Amino acid sequence: MLIRYGEGLVWNELMELFYVEKSDLKGQSAEDKVATVYEASKGQQPKAPIKTLDEVIATKTDAVREAWGAV
Questions:
Q1: pLDDT, tens digit, for every residue of 13-68?
Q2: Which of 15, 21, 57, 71 is 20 to 30 A removed from 34 (C-alpha atoms)?
Q3: Any idea what DSSP says for residue 59?
Q4: HEC string of 56-69?
Q5: Where in the chain are the domains?
Q6: Contact at 8 Å (CB) between 31 and 8?
């Protein structure tokens, strides 16, 4: 699954998307944390329509972020 995310920490967004709490990961090794989030992702149904990689690439634009912070 590809999830578009423009900024920030992807790990935190994945945890939120798959309803994994920090307390669920407490005391686990890095490998176990990845496995826990992976297991949580198996039952998740995406809210956005499912597209193939070719469809996603076809909708790519040349837009880039020109500035960061307050404008």
A1: 888 888 899 999 999 999 999 999 999 988 887 777 888 889 988 988 887 766 66
A2: 57
A3: T
A4: HHHCCCCCCCCCCC
A5: 8-43
A6: no
